Amino acid sequence: MNNQETTEVITELETKIAFLEAANDEIERALLSQHERIDRLDVIVNELRNRIKEQASVIEGLESMSSEPPPPHY
Questions:
Q1: pLDDT given for residue 70 in this prediction
Q2: Using CA atoms, how far apart are residues 65 and 58, in angstroms rounded to an integer?
Q3: Which is higher by pLDDT, 63 or 40?
Q4: Cα distances (angstroms) measured from residue 74 to each of 65, 68, 71
Q5: pLDDT digits (tens, 9 = 90+) for 30-48
Q6: Is the pLDDT of residue 12 over 80?
Q7: Hey, CA dihedral for 36, 42, 44, 47, is it positive or negative?
Q8: Radius of gyration of the chain from its Cα atoms, rounded to whole angstroms
Q9: Residue burial 23-58, b: 16+ Cβ < 10 Å; e: rest
Q10: In sequence order, what DSSP letters do the residues of 8-71 get, joined into one string?
């Protein structure tokens, strides 16, 4: 392999490395974005879970009130 061929191979490898570095950066940004979305969704799910628990408590309270006999009327 002569000097020009070596230079061409090195240039090709440098180009491929630059492409791979750019692709890697793009993947890292996409993963970070997905991680942030997952974190936000996790917060939303936890808030919804708490609201459902609160509503279940309210419903249970209403059900227990309706199952109790009414107070006597004098």
A1: 65
A2: 11
A3: 40
A4: 20, 18, 10
A5: 999 999 999 999 999 999 9
A6: yes
A7: negative
A8: 32
A9: eeeeeeeeeeeeeeeeeeeeeeeeeeeeeeeeeeee
A10: HHHHHHHHHHHHHHHHHHHHHHHHHHHHHHHHHHHHHHHHHHHHHHHHHHHHHHHHHHHHSPPP
